[in-house]
């Protein structure tokens, strides 16, 4: 359909409803001559006479009545669609699609999902858990969460979640049986649970930093995994020593089910970031999610707000 096929339809509907050019002009906020010109152009384009005109009145012709029956429902649907979408632009609703790695889901999303969904019942969430970086625009996601050093430069990125450190963990049962490492290099004599990155296929190296010395180790062990939650579960089961960022493991530490090892050597790592394409056109559903994360961090750590 060509764009000019729609020209004059709103004016036609106004004249038909108001039964006059002057009243239609008032309704549309334009001059009577502009109304007359628009109707004349529409009639010429269609090759039809839509109105009978006299000095006293304007009324639809028979063909004009039939034309009105056809176009009025379509125009009403267009108007309703515009109004509904306009409301959505300012009201948090619709489907919010977010792409995250497993660690981000465990650390940032899992703790707040129930409260967020209760606060915004008209927002439906689709969360896709993928450890490799994806094109969120090309795949139709509203936003993604990744570590800050993995976010593309053309994205708007906001730091979220707690300050992160890489920590060494093991179950009390494992430590009772095999002893506690006193230095990072002691890990080379232990059964360590390795993590293989799905995106690169590389096994993660363990980095340590005590402020004076940095150490980078390729540990060894009988178990290699590619899932953060299963990594923690395996440590809980006493299968070895694991390397995991904080934010998910705290409850297990508080319960005494996991022990923190080599705490003085835990290095800081980049914050998780929520990122999205365009700051100027943030839909209400995404803005609500951003604000909710901001408020969560403010309440959790008022002196350490990082969002």
UniProtKB/TrEMBL annotation:
Q: Does the keyword Transport apply?
A: no
- Recite the UniProt keywords alphabetically: DNA-binding, Transcription, Transcription regulation
**Is Thylakoid a UniProt keyword of this protein?**
no
Q: Where is the HTH lysR-type domain?
A: 1-61
Cited InterPro entries: LysR-type_TF_proteobact-type (IPR058163), LysR_HTH_N (IPR000847), LysR_subst-bd (IPR005119), WH-like_DNA-bd_sf (IPR036388), WH_DNA-bd_sf (IPR036390)
One Gene Ontology molecular-function label: DNA-binding transcription factor activity
Q: What PANTHER family is this protein classified in?
A: HTH-TYPE TRANSCRIPTIONAL ACTIVATOR TTDR-RELATED, HTH-TYPE TRANSCRIPTIONAL REGULATOR
Entry similarity comment? Belongs to the LysR transcriptional regulatory family.
Q: What is this protein called in UniProt?
A: LysR family transcriptional regulator
């Amino acid at each position: 359909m060509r764009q000019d096929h729609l020209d004059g339809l709103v004016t036609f509907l106004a004249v038909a409803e108001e039964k006059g050019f002057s009243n239609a002009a008032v309704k549309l906020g334009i001059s009577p001559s502009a109304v007359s010109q628009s109707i004349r152009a529409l009639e010429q384009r269609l090759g039809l006479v839509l109105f009978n005109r006299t000095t006293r009145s304007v009324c639809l012709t028979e063909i004009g009545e039939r034309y009105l029956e056809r176009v009025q429902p379509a125009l009403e649907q267009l108007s309703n669609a515009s109004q509904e979408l306009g409301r959505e632009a300012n009201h948090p609703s619709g489907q919010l699609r977010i792409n995250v790695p497993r660690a981000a889901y465990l650390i940032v999303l899992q703790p707040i999902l129930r409260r967020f969904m209760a606060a915004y019942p008209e927002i439906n969430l689709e969360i896709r858990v993928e450890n490799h970086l994806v094109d969120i625009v090309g795949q139709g996601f509203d936003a993604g969460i990744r570590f800050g050093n993995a976010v593309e430069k053309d994205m708007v990125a906001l730091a979220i979640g707690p300050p992160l450190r890489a920590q060494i963990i093991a179950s009390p049962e494992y430590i009772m049986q095999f002893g506690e490492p006193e230095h990072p290099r002691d890990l080379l004599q232990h059964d360590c649970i390795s993590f293989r990155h799905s995106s690169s296929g590389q096994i993660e190296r363990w980095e340590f930093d005590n402020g004076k010395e940095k150490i980078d180790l390729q540990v060894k062990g009988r178990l290699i995994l590619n899932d953060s939650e299963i990594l923690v579960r395996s440590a809980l089961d006493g299968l070895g020593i694991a390397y995991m960022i904080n934010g998910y493991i705290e409850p297990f530490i508080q319960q005494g089910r996991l022990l923190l090892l080599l705490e003085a050597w835990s290095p800081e790592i980049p914050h998780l970031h929520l990122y999205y394409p365009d700051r100027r056109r943030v839909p209400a559903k995404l803005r609500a999610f951003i604000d909710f994360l901001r408020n969560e961090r403010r309440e959790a750590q008022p002196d350490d707000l990082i969002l």
